Amino acid sequence: MRETKKKTKKKKFLFIALSIIGLLILGTGGYAFYLYKSAADTVASIHEDLNREKSEKRTEEVQFTEKDPISILLMGVDERKGDRGRSDSLILMTVNPNTNSTQMVSIPRDTRTEIVGKGTQDKINHAYAFGGTEMAINTVENFLDIPVDYFVKINMESFKDTVDAVGGVEVNNTLDFTYEGYHFQKGKISLDGKKALAYSRMRYDDPRGDFGRQDRQRQVIEAVIKKGANVSSITKFGDMFGVVRDNVTTNLTFDQMWDIQANYKAASQNLEQFQVNGSGDKIDGIYYYIVPEEERTALSNQLKEHLEISTNTASAE
C-alpha cells in the first residue's frame, strides 16, 4: 500500500502556495491597495497559457464558483542559464472543496513511464527537458490517467532567494547529515537561502532516498509560506514579489487565485499525502523507479474519485 500521512488542524499546506499572494493581501491592513496592485501585476507577469482550453480528460472546463474539484501540478525545475533542465520535483494535488480535502501525490523523479510526445519509455522528469511544461503535464496525465487542470512551476535555483526574501526559516530536521559543506543536525534548525537549498537537495545519503528529499522540500516550502503570511514590511513584500516574478510560472490568473482563496481554502485543512509505491531497478544499466500496474491503477482510481470523475481503469503504458 502507499505510505499515507494525514495532517489536520492549523498547519498551512502546500495548497496555500497557489493563493499565497491573495493570503498576503488579505492580512495586510493598510497595505491593501499597494499590495493588491503589486500582486495583480506580479501574477500577470508570471502567467503562461497552455496550448489548450482544458485537459482532454475533461468533458467540461472546471468552474471555481461551482466548487468543482481541481487538480494542480507543482513542478520544481532545475533551470540554469541556457539550460531548460529537468523537473526536479513533481507533486500532483487534487483539491475537493465539497469534502474539504486535499490529496497530494509525490511522483518520484526516476519513475519509468511513457514520455508523451516522444513515444519512448524514460524517467518521468525527462519529459520537461524534452518538451517543457506541456510535455511534462501530458506525461503526468498519461501516467495517472487524470486531468491536470493547472500548473505552478518554480525554478528550484530560486529556492535560496525565496528563503532569503522572508528572512530565513526554521525547520525540524529528522536526519543528521552533511551536504555541500553544511552540517544539518537533528532537531530545530535555522536556514538561510544557501543552507535551505542544500538541505532540500540531499538524497543519496538519506535511507529514504528521493522520498526523504521531497519531505525536506515540503518542509522548507511550508516554512516559507508560514513566514511569508506573517510579513508586515512593504520592503519584504517587494522582495517576495520580485522573487515570484523571476522564478514562478503558472496558468492560473489573478482572478482564479482569488476564486481559489474564496471557495477552496477550507480544503487545505484536511490534507492526505501519498507516495507512489514501487521499487528501484536497472534497465540497460540505467536506474529507474518501477511502479506496478496495479499500484498505478489503484492510485489513478483514488484520484479520480477525489476529483468526482469516472473511475475507469488507468490506461496502460
Task: Describe it.
The chain is α+β, with helices and mostly antiparallel strands. It has a domain at 4-162 and 248-307: Nucleotidyltransferase, domain 5, CATH 3.30.420.590. The protein is 36% helix and 24% strand. The chain contains nine helices and 15 strands. The chain is globular and about 45 Å long. Residues 1-30 and 313-317 have low confidence and may be disordered.
Can you summarize this structure?
With 317 residues, the chain is an alpha+beta fold.
Secondary-structure map with pairings?
Layout: E1 4-7, H1 20-26, H2 32-46, E2 70-77, E3 87-96, E4 101-107, E5 112-115, E6 120-123, H3 126-144, E7 150-155, H4 159-165, E8 169-173, E9 177-179, E10 182-184, E11 187-191, H5 193-201, H6 210-228, H7 234-247, E12 248-250, H8 254-263, E13 271-275, E14 279-283, E15 286-290, H9 293-307
Helix pairs in contact: 1-2, 2-7, 4-5, 5-6
What is the tally of beta strands?
A: 15
The arrangement of helices and strands along the chain is EHHEEEEEHEHEEEEHHHEHEEEH
CATH top level of one domain?
A: Alpha Beta
Query: If helices are DSSP runs of H or I spanning 4 or more residues, what is the number of helices?
Result: 9
Average predicted confidence as pLDDT = 82
What order do the strands of the largest sheet run in, or round the barrel if closed?
1-13-4-3-2-7-12
Q: What is the annotated CATH architecture of one domain?
A: 2-Layer Sandwich
CATH topology of one domain: Nucleotidyltransferase, domain 5
> What percentage of amino acids are in beta strands?
15-25%
pLDDT < 50 runs, ≥5 residues: 1-30, 313-317
Overall body shape = globular
Cα separation of the termini:
21 Å
Q: What's the story with the biggest beta sheet?
A: 7 strands, mixed
Task: Please bin the fraction of helical residues.
Answer: 25-40%
Rg for CA atoms: 19 Å
Class from helix and strand fractions: alpha+beta
